[in-house]
Write a structure and sequence with these properties.
four-stranded antiparallel sheet, ATP binding, 9 helices, translocase, single chain, six-stranded mixed sheet, 32% helix, alpha/beta, ATP hydrolysis activity, nucleotide-binding
Amino acid sequence: MMRAEKVGLKLNGRNILRDIDCTVTPGRVTVVMGKNGAGKSTLLQIMAGQVTQGGAAGAVSVDGKAMQDIPSAELAGRRAVLAQSVQLGFPLPVAEVVELGCYARYHQMTARQRKSAVAQYLELLDITRLKNRSFPTLSGGEQKRVLLAKCLLQLDVENPDHKNNRYLLLDEPTAALDLEQQYRFVDLATRLARERGLGVLAVLHDLNLAARFADDLLFLRNGETVAAGPTTKVLTKTIIQETFNVDCLIQPHPCFNCPLITTLPYGKPNIAPALAP
C-alpha cells in the first residue's frame, strides 16, 4: 500500500493541509474530493514525492518503506503521475512522448526494445493511429490517453517483473474533457487498476464519476479531512453538505449499481428529502 500518515503542509503561516491520512491499495481506486483550495492536488503531490520544501509534516510510505528512502529510479517504477496539464516545448510526435516513459532506463534498452514497448502501449490505449501525430495537435482526451500510456510504460519498464506494487496518481484527469471523454478516461483507468493490480489515486470534481468508479473516497475541506472510507459508507448527503456546502438528492442509479447524486442550488441547504443518509 501507499500510505500518507498525518500529512500536513504549512506555507507562509497558513495550513494548506493538516493531519491527513490517505491509503492507496493495489487494485482499488481512491478518489480525493473537495472544493477548490481544499488541498487535493497538494496531497497528491506530497504522495508523489514532489513536495519537499520546509513546512511539510507527516510521512509517506510505499509498501512499508519511507518514500524518501526509495532511490529515484526505483520510485519511478513504483509510482507514475499524470499531472493536470503538460506543456511540451517541442512538437514531439506521440510515439516519442510515450517513449519518455523509458527515460530512466533509456540507455539500458536497445532502440528495438524501446520501439516495441511503445507500440505495446499505443495499442493498449487504442492510440496507434496517432503515433506520428504532433502531441500539441491532439484533442484533450487524446493527449490524456497518450500521457496515460507513458505512465503505464514507465511503471512496467522500471518494474518489469512486477515484483513491487505499482501506483498511478491522476491529478484532475478529467479537466477540460467533454462528458464522453470524462467517462471513457475514468473507466479506462479503473479497468487498468482492476486488471493490472494498480493502486489508483485520483483527484476528481464530479460526484457521479466518483460514485460510479471509486472504491474509496477522501473528502477534504480547508485542508482537513471531512470523511474517509469506502464509497458505500461515506458518500452521504450529510458529508456532501459538509464538504461542498450544497444540498443534494441521492437516489439509486437507474442503470448502474451505484448512487445517483443530484446537487441543488447553494444557499438552500436541507431542502431535499432524505432519500439517502
